[in-house]
Amino acid sequence: MTGPLLDVVALGSAIVDVLATAQDADLDARGLVKGTMALVDDERADELYAGMGPAVEASGGSAANTVAGVASFGGSAAFIGKVRDDQFGEVFTHDMRAMGVAYDTPPATDGPATARCLVFVTPDAQRTMTTYLGAATGLGPDDVDTAVVASARYTYLEGYLWDPPEAISALRLAISAASHAGRQVALSLSDPFCVDRHRNDFLELVDDHVDVLFANEVEIMSLFEVTTPADAFDAIRRRGRCKLAAVTLGPGGSAILTPDGVIERPAVPVDDVVDTTGAGDLYAAGFLHGLASGAGLVQCADRGSLAAAEVISHVGARPLVPLASLLERGTG
User: Any idea what DSSP says for residue 105?
Assistant: First the structure.
């Protein structure tokens, strides 16, 4: 890729979120447990989708949300993830590009359909989700443009992808390309169950390849099998390469591990928390944008909290207002 360096390139699951309102009785009729997330196959996904009311369809996925946030801050970002050449694949591609994210991964021409997350929102703002991973699991080394990775200041990896063998190979290729180009590698632990499945692999990444680690307090404690975030930070210090970790603490704000100690920062107050989906993704967006633009770590953490506060104030995992405008008003 020619031109200036990208701020962030992310590798993750390319998912289309399909959001519709529903009543508790609708969930019961469909056999859904309110407030949960369940993986489903294509047949079940098609059945649920056919029965949904009027819906909003928008690109989603954890790492995709993060680079969308980077772009909303005015940063330069790219995304690598797999869709199918179908309607949902077109929705995902259009949304990412409309957000200002470079997205050029070739769509699959056969095999599973584009991944989608069907989200049923009840009047109490609870979200009940069913996810079909579909084509997202087909990401492989051939989909990784190493020149794009080498051009990015930060390569951001989604822990959720550490399941399919081909996707693991793709992530390792990206790590190698970033390392050879002298760039930084960031990893999101994604989910405590994901950590439980891949603890040894994640520890190897943290020891040998990761420069910036993102997690919430449950994930970081699970990774090191300890009972407090402070114990997890001590474990990171003892291990080696990873010198910077950003841990979100929900309403408690965030804690940043540095070689000199721990920086604690408060959360940005939100009058009405509507939907916490995407809070961690957008925190990472603000933090990475801060790092890429040369901001200090306090500013990076506050920028992350600003983005998280915006996204939890409404339904949906993407910002509704340009995050750059919030910075311009001096609120982050």
Answer: P
* pLDDT at 330 (0 to 100): 65
Which two three-digit tokens encode residue 8?
A: 């962030």
Q: Is residue 1 part of a domain?
A: no
Helix, strand or coil for residue 223?
helix
Cβ proximity of 53 and 142 under 8 Å: no
Greatest Cα pair distance in the chain: 55
CATH number, domain with residue 43: 3.40.1190.20
CA 236 to chain centre: 22
Place of tokens 């989604």: 158
In order, the DSSP letters of 34-99 are TT-EEE--HHHHHHHHHT--S-EEEEE-HHHHHHHHHHHTT--EEEE---BSSHHHHHHHHHHHHT
Give residue 66's domain range: 6-328
Nearest to 17 by CA among 37, 41, 43: 37
Whether residue 53 lies inside any domain: the answer is: yes
- Other beta carbons within 10 Å of 298: 12
CB burial of 261-295 (b: ≥16 within 10 Å; e: otherwise) equals eebebebbebeeeebebbbbbbbbbbbbbbbbbeb
Q: What is the pLDDT of residues 73-83, one digit of tens each?
A: 999 999 999 99
Number of domains the chain contains = 1
Spatial CB neighbours of 89, under 8 Å, sequence gap ≥ 6: 83, 107, 114, 135
The reply to whether 62 falls in a domain is yes
pLDDT in tens, 194-227: 899 999 999 999 999 999 999 999 999 999 999 9
Q: Could you tell me if residue 42 is inside a domain?
A: yes
HEC string of 9-40? EEECCCEEEEEEECCHHHHHHCCCCCCCEEEC
pLDDT at 317 over 90: no
For residue 171, what are the CA distances in angstroms to 93, 160, 185, 280?
21, 11, 11, 21
Q: What confidence tens digit (pLDDT) does each residue in 156-184 have?
A: 999 989 988 999 999 999 999 999 999 99
